[in-house]
Amino acid sequence: MDYIKAVIDIGTNTFHLLVAKVDESKNIQVIHKNTIAVKLGEGGVNKGFITDAAYQRGIDALIQFRKELNENGIKDVFATATAAVRDASNGQDFIDEVLAKADIRINIIDGLKEAEYIYYGAKAAQTLSKDKSLIMDIGGGSVEFIICTEDEVFWKNSYRLGAARLLADYYFTDDSITNESLTEIEYHFSQQLNSLFEAFKQHQPKKLIGTAGSFDSYASMIALKTQTIFDPQKMSSYDFNHKDFEELISKIIKSTHQERVNMEGLIPLRVDMILMASILTRYILEKGNIQEVTTCTYSLKEGLLLSQN
To answer: What confidence tier does 254 reach under pLDDT thresholds 50, 70, 90?
Structure first.
């Protein structure tokens, strides 16, 4: 029997609505989906609050999602919020107002729960195997890492190293990022990621799986350049040629804001976010000595969907 389920992922940059049929074999058939670039963390992600303008954009987006749910005849929806709401002093006010105005009850989830749902999403996309992989999900407020196979999670953690957070701390101009700033950022990573380095030593994952977000953009950009096909609506994964991938992230790291604006396949929302995602991705590939990279179009929202009874 098929079940129709609805989930909302309230992220630091984007809000996602997904309505889908899920069969007993955990196959997902999308009925309706929408993504709104709310930028809830803009101006406040590193200050511990949601700014007035971002707060209103968030309320408006969830009122819109409720309208779309009603149009699809759906009352119940499982909505989760991550770092931007979790860390905000006015996060509870936002949750209360959403319930009052959009009749959507928001569940705050911590970073480890977020990592668990991301694993379920990647597993459903059939990107995992018997070999150990490192899943990386770069959000706006946090980044989740999961070392796993298709059958088991060996290690997972969440770090406050999201792209919006890093941009707010280290990128103040539209020029290319300076070597000094790069050194500062990588030093910051080295201070924050010790537990990940220990997990690398213990588990030695051979493959990096980047879920959604910036990795969808990498796939779109490389597919255009190499005249291959990447359709995130129809494909659950895309394997990168390692040389093409390294060249792209190097180019992004050296680029100015305007050069990124002009890059084919890069959507406006990610023009600056992808800079920080690329710096972190290059750092992880080097530290983990990982040669194989895949993007997975399933992530938190698909994991949420599959975890609902």
So the answer is: very high
CATH superfamily of 3-108: ATPase, nucleotide binding domain (3.30.420.40)
Question: How many Cβ atoms sit within 10 Å of the Cβ of residue 16?
Answer: 20
Instruction: Give pLDDT tens digits for 162-219.
Output: 999 999 999 989 999 999 999 999 999 999 999 999 999 999 999 999 997 899 999 9
User: Considering only the top CATH level, what class is 126-301?
Assistant: alpha beta
Q: Which two tokens stand for residue 138?
A: 């770069």
Residue 222's nearest CA partner among 254, 251, 256 is 251
- Tell me the CB-side half-sphere exposure of residue 9, using CA atoms within 13 A: 28
**Long-range residue pairs from 282-287, CB within 8 A, at least 24 positions apart, any chain:** 282/246, 282/249, 282/250, 282/253, 283/186, 283/189, 284/134, 284/136, 284/208, 285/208, 285/246, 287/193, 287/196, 287/197, 287/200
- Residues 193-223 as b/e (b if ≥16 CB within 10 A, e otherwise) read beebeebbeebebebbbbbbbbbbbbbbbbb
Locate CATH 3.30.420.150 in the chain.
126-301
